[in-house]
Amino acid sequence: MTTPPPARPLSATERTRHRRLREQGRADRAELDSILAAGFVCHLGVTVDGTLMVVPTVYGADDGTLYFHGSVASRSLVAAPGAAVCVTVTHIDGLVLARSVFEHGVNYRSAMIYGVPRPVTDEEEKLAGLRCLTEQSAPGQWDYARRPSRKELAATALLALPLDEASVKVRTGPPDDGDSPDAELGLWAGVLPLNASWGTLRPDPGLDPAIAPPPHLVHRAGTAAQA
Amino acid sequence: MTTPPPARPLSATERTRHRRLREQGRADRAELDSILAAGFVCHLGVTVDGTLMVVPTVYGADDGTLYFHGSVASRSLVAAPGAAVCVTVTHIDGLVLARSVFEHGVNYRSAMIYGVPRPVTDEEEKLAGLRCLTEQSAPGQWDYARRPSRKELAATALLALPLDEASVKVRTGPPDDGDSPDAELGLWAGVLPLNASWGTLRPDPGLDPAIAPPPHLVHRAGTAAQA
């Protein structure tokens, strides 16, 4: 993010106090916002008819609210509003290759958000939320593509989750066994980074070849995919 | 995967029948195995003290079983064995850029596995499970790095989840609005692929520069990260 918002502490409720992996817990709002800004797919945990489900879905994060499509879990979220969810966004940055198997791990950034999503019914807010969601994954497309018709808008279930209660965990850097007795083993240790990048635009096979991709897509192709 | 296993149908229980996105549901075992083989981080959904949590964690999949560390959810999984979980593995392959915002989407492969994980207590099975888990993310490291001591093994909680009940969803290909009235809008449409790749090995800053990385790591650096 180019202009991080002012730091506001994340809440530290019973379930976000980092009982485990305490050293990896972060508690500033900028870190949460940065993790959310760097992605566009979350894993939504919700209980549907007594069954816990974890569903991947696109999201948009803006101004203290996370938006996602209600359709992904319509059986529960539309049928039973008021259900608590956990939404997790994770970026995998690399493998931590230690001298011992026991110290192997992953460099990552992850945010878990807890709350009760609210169905967005106001048409203006729904448009704003869908814009946020669309621009999160495909910036520039809201102004380029055809916007939702009134009928499409009515067919879209959008949910809003406040970014009030969240747990952020980050691991960075080399393995932790550099000063353990294992360092004497003479084994290589370090990190193998994992990178995500946008590839080359693939036009719809049915597209008129005279139609060129818009600049915002041309500029994105081939670039790193995460902030 | 170079040698896909023989196709066994996934179960079609009430919760894996693809009520939504039916066209994207897949029901063969090879597709599940392929999705699991292409990753090493899952999102584990579990209810802990009445709170639903979605936790990212590494896994290993082998011969009908998914292994993961019990420590990631020790409060529930160790304290309350028998709890049902949902484990989801997702690969994002690209953005689907349609003529209309409404038809925008994501190309992806995702597997959701339902079940009750079993704590692995037998020392031999635990070693085999940890080998599977280690080799899933860092192939070659089990034979290269120092293996777990008896003390480390005792300190490691490993869980085994049978790959019996699963739901696989896949979306591939161009946008779906190529033959809709929107095709007349003259807008570009297609797919922007998202690629993952391994970067350049970063040695631990404390490492003796005379220690070279082993061939299995040298060969992996710079290659595509997914099958």
TrEMBL record, chains A, B:
List the Pfam families hit by this protein, alphabetically: Pyridox_ox_2
Instruction: Please give the SUPFAM superfamilies that the UniProt record associates with this protein.
Output: FMN-binding split barrel
Name the segments for region: Disordered.
1-25
Q: What is this protein called?
A: Flavin-nucleotide-binding protein
